Amino acid sequence: MHRHLVIAAALLALVGAGCSSDPSSEPAAGTTTSEPGETTSTQAGGEPGALVIVDFAFEPPDVLAGEDGTLTITNEGDTDHTFTMNDGSIDEDLAPGATVDVAIGETGGFHCEIHPSMTGTVESE
Ligand SMILES: [Cu+2]
Asked: Of 42, 63, 48, nearest to 118 (Cα)?
């Protein structure tokens, strides 16, 4: 008979411990709603026909070819990069500071041959 009392006491202790640990849990998730949120970053992609390489990334990653179907690519990084269409139609080497104009034939994905993580897509207007 005593045994049941011991178990009950142990359970109470556990419940009590659980309750006392609650205040240390995460604060309310309401803080996420106060995030300012950048305005429509999809439209802030720079001018059509201009693509810049900065810090191992193409900016903007989704670029529009210019009205005449050309793309001016500038390497503002400190290392060599390439502008290579995934279909192989264009393959340009860009040394640091270099600028090249390319005529976009087929729109689609492109990448840097040296840094496979550098990818983007060119579209026409
Ligand atoms: Cu690169």
From this structure: 63
